[in-house]
Amino acid sequence: MKYFGKTLYVLLATLIRTLPYIIFIMTHLAWGVYSYMIDPLSLLDVSTIPGTIGAFNWLYLSLGVLILVFLTMEFKLLAYSTFLGAFLGQNLHFLRQWDISVYNLSLPSLQNTWYALIFLGLLIGFLLQVLYTGGRKYYKVKQYNFMRQQRQKQTAPSESE
Hints:
With 161 residues, the chain is an all-alpha fold. It has six helices and no strands. It has helices at 2-17, 19-34, 49-53, 56-72, 76-103, 111-155. The longest helix has 45 residues, at 111-155.
């Protein structure tokens, strides 16, 4: 029973760590089916999914690894903002693809905007992370100095003695 718990823990930890990658893949497949670019019946065969995703697989894999590294290094704000920027860019990209396929428009693709939103998410996350950790460290140093001054006042001999 002890080994079953450890095995279950390892499987759940692996699943949670691959969650950003899985979310990006599922969003891609859902938008592909919704915008009539992917046949939903072809997704029943799991071996066709990597071919359906194509070159985006490397983008999703790199974003998933990047978010995993940020979470491992405890840069949560950076990881969350990167995920949100990539997710927003992905949805905007597929909304444009849907407009093109449904209304037969000749609009340019928003793939550059997608990459720009990923970069913007990284930049905003970096700034938020630096401000959060820097401010927290400043507050701790200020609190430490205040407590040190209080202790010095208590232990200092009074002038009346």
